[in-house]
Amino acid sequence: MLDLKFLRSHRDKVEAGIALKGVTVDLARFYQIEEKRLALLHETEQLKASRNAASEQIAQLKKTGQDASAQIAEMRAVGDKVKELDEQLRALEEESTSLAAWFPNMPHSSVPPGSSAEQNQVVRHWGERPKFDFEPKPHWELATNLGLLDFERASKISGSGFLLFTGLGARLERALISFMLDFHTTKHGYTEMSVPHVIRRAALHGTGQLPKLEGDMYHIGEDDLFLNPTAEVPVTNIWREEILEPGKLPIYATAYCASYRREAGAAGRDTRGMVRVHQFDKVELVKFVAPETSYDEHEKLARDVADIFEALELPYRVLLLCSGDMSFAAAKCYDFEVWAPGLGAWLECSSCSNFEDFQARRMALRFRRETGAKVEFPHTLNASGVALPRTFATLLENHQRADGSVAIPKALQPYLGGMTEIRPA
């Protein structure tokens, strides 16, 4: 949520920021409501002052034994008018808040303007793309031949867009999750959390998925709950509606949580295999920091993500997203794309975002720098640390061999009992 004072005082900046995000919102209606609300508020305050003055006059008249019936009648009329205006104000405030919930976060000044992924900027590469003396296979062929995934039976159970890991595939999935959680807790200083998989509407509103993305999520109608769309939501909402006391910041939290999304992309080549699925595993990284440190923390967060891909020996590139390709809530975002030689394409495996105080305002999360100091809104950040399906897919494709086997990166071998390769049965 943007600061309402900022919205009222910097209309030109708000209009420019929303245009850069490429979002359509009813700004005219918002400012119309705000103008009416402020006029009513001024009128109400004047009437309340008049009522207070009349109350004092009535008390004085009664004290001296004089007739105060006219003043009492006038005060009652004023009270009725105040009650009527208060009801109008509440209705206007509700509509104003509802409209403001659709306003995206403003892009940071360092974010390049643009309307699509074509305007994203590649800011860094790491690793060399593997060179094979054979035609590299796509991950779905490798996974099927190695007995790691059963796409047909997954579809029989749940329909398209779901995965069934089998045998060593299930073990490899579990190994990747354990490896990443251990890496982030022991090397990067995150505290591990285990969070619910079902989420309240208010929590999704807090991190910015609602109201915009409701159609992309699985809704449990009877309970008005949602299946977790990303572990960012439950972890970030752990401290919602709280005031963090001095010394609490920064907070670094990590969690594994299965994620569920109804939207899985349009039909086409990128929907084959593990590229776009409805249920996927992910290890999430979330930070709560003081505002003046958040962009330094954002760079450190990106480094934490990079360490995972480098440990897994996966060539990647980092993109600075343009304004129109960022999420609704982000002020700045890096995407990490890993090279998939079997597909001949770069696959996004992590997003690393700074939300500034946008989410904290929506969650009513505040902090104090010192005992008794005024409360402020912290900045929140998050990144996939990292998402499993595409990382699993690129691991198979980058480490494949001519005989159909797949080498296991050294960092992952302890999580697979010392196994160094996966071979066809």
Structural class from helices and strands?
A: alpha+beta
What is the highest CATH level, the class of the largest domain? Alpha Beta
What is the tally of helical segments?
Answer: 12
* Domain module count: 2
Tell me what the structure shows:
The chain is α+β, with helices and mostly antiparallel strands and 425 residues long. The protein folds into 2 domains: 4-100, Serine-tRNA synthetase, tRNA binding domain (Helix Hairpins), CATH 1.10.287.40; 117-422, 2-Layer Sandwich (BirA Bifunctional Protein, domain 2). The protein has 12 helices and 15 strands. The protein has helices at residues 4-9, 11-21, 27-63, 69-100, 139-145, 151-158, 168-186, 201-207, 232-236, 294-311, 358-363, 388-398; strands spanning 121-126, 191-194, 198-200, 219-220, 225-227, 243-244, 251-260, 279-289, 316-320, 332-340, 345-354, 366-367, 379-387, 406-407, 421-422. The strands form 4 sheets. The protein has an 8-stranded mixed sheet with strand order 1-9-10-11-13-8-7-2. A 3-stranded antiparallel sheet has the order 3-5-4. Helix 5 (139-145) crosses helix 12. The two termini are 54 Å apart. The mean pLDDT is 94.
Topology:
Blueprint: H1 4-9, H2 11-21, H3 27-63, H4 69-100, E1 121-126, H5 139-145, H6 151-158, H7 168-186, E2 191-194, E3 198-200, H8 201-207, E4 219-220, E5 225-227, H9 232-236, E6 243-244, E7 251-260, E8 279-289, H10 294-311, E9 316-320, E10 332-340, E11 345-354, H11 358-363, E12 366-367, E13 379-387, H12 388-398, E14 406-407, E15 421-422
Parallel strand pairs: 2-7, 6-12
Antiparallel strand pairs: 1-9, 3-5, 4-5, 7-8, 8-13, 9-10, 10-11, 11-13, 14-15
